[in-house]
Design brief:
alpha/beta, Metallo-beta-lactamase, Chain A, 6-stranded mixed sheet, binds zinc ion
Length: 359
């Protein structure tokens, strides 16, 4: 099946972290981190509904200004999600500009900030352009552990990593694909029609098994109607296939605790983006900077069982030598999976030094 979600690192493996996840069916996109996003372009930036920020180090958050710039004066509100202290960071950024004229704009632009607490609380605040982006607290609620938000189309899960500051890793879990078997419908003498939209909605929203669904249609005998339960239809005419899982983990100290948390979050992901900032030869430097080496990240990726893994957030000290990080990552991943890649296979690693990574 062709995927409904396109994932792409905006700046390749060496540039600021920003992973754009385009949800074609929802006509919108999500961002995991928002470093420099100039390469994304205005049209794509306007498609972004939610930005999930791992932590507010500048390389992960500096693109917020550009996001703000392209949305001012447009009816294009955005939601931001981030770790403890994040609302203060956003407020400080908004406080850096003079907003004496935007109150009179015809449209209101709203930044909604969701701050995730270490105990899985969610504190929400609103910053609206009509009130010069003054903070308006919208309350606090508790989250199911590890689950930031759930929509009919997807869930975003998170894990806290230690980066000498709390840092969030994310996993987008697409909802199951609901396939209707037309031959089975025909065998039951049922037509396609709007009633199937109702069925899809009921499944997506997790309606109880006994929820009634009415198939209505017209034929030469006039209006027809038959009633089924959701459970009957799921059994007889529906096939559910799992949606995609795309995990993103970056900026973590090399500890067993961090490794275990990434593994749990990315378990059986279709695609894992994971930082591989330094070579194992520079391990001491990686530890000082609270980052992972490519070898460490490769072992974590292998243990998670992720089907594909893309190393990124390479330190610019290796600029021009990205293939060394990619090779070390792949070798460690292959070794931890219990097999050695055939010689020559490493050149197929999809990493280019200064261009975009094809995800
Ligand atoms: Zn970073
Ligand atoms: Zn960082």
């Amino acid at each position: 099946m062709t995927s409904a979600i396109q994932a792409e690192l905006v700046n390749g493996p060496f540039g600021d972290p920003a992973l754009v996840l385009d949800l074609a069916f929802e006509r919108r996109a999500l961002l995991f981190d928002i470093g420099d996003v100039a390469a994304l372009g205005t049209r794509k930036l306007l498609r972004v509904s939610d930005v999930f920020v791992s932590h507010a180090h500048m390389d992960h958050f500096a693109g917020f200004d550009r996001m703000l710039r392209v949305r001012l004066g447009r009816d294009a509100s955005v939601a931001l999600w981030g770790p403890p202290g994040f609302t203060d960071r956003v407020e400080a950024k908004l406080g850096a500009y003079t907003w004496n004229v935007i109150g009179g704009y015809a449209t209101e632009f709203v930044v909604t900030v969701h701050e995730v607490g270490l105990g899985w609380s969610l504190r929400t605040a609103r910053f609206g352009s009509r009130s010069a982006f003054a903070r308006e607290p919208l309350g606090e609620r508790s989250l199911p552990a590890g689950e930031l938000c759930r929509t009919p189309g997807y869930t975003v899960r998170a894990a806290f990593l230690d980066h000498r500051t709390p840092c969030l890793a994310f996993c987008l879990v697409e909802a199951d694909h609901i396939n209707i078997w037309k031959p089975r419908l025909e065998a039951l003498g049922l037509p396609t029609g709007p009633w199937l939209t109702e069925l899809r909605r009921a499944i997506r929203e997790g309606a109880p098994a006994e929820t009634p669904i009415k198939a209505r249609w017209r034929d030469r005998d006039g209006a027809r109607e038959r009633e089924f339960t959701v459970a009957e239809l799921v059994r007889d005419v529906v096939e559910l296939t799992p949606g995609q899982r795309i995990a993103y983990a970056t900026d973590a100290t090399m500890t067993e605790e961090n490794a275990a948390r990434i593994v749990a979050l990315a378990r059986d992901a279709d695609l894992l983006f994971i930082e591989a900032a330094f070579l194992e030869a520079d391990r001491d430097h990686a530890l000082r900077k609270a980052h992972m080496t490519a070898a460490f990240a490769g072992r974590v990726a292998a243990t998670s069982g992720a089907r594909r893994a893309v190393p990124f957030h390479f330190s610019t000290r290796y600029l021009g030598g990205g293939h060394r990080l990619a090779a070390e990552f792949e070798a460690a991943r292959a070794a931890a999976m219990g097999w050695q890649p055939p010689s020559g296979a490493l050149s197929s690693v999809p990493i280019r030094d200064d261009n975009r990574t094809d995800a």
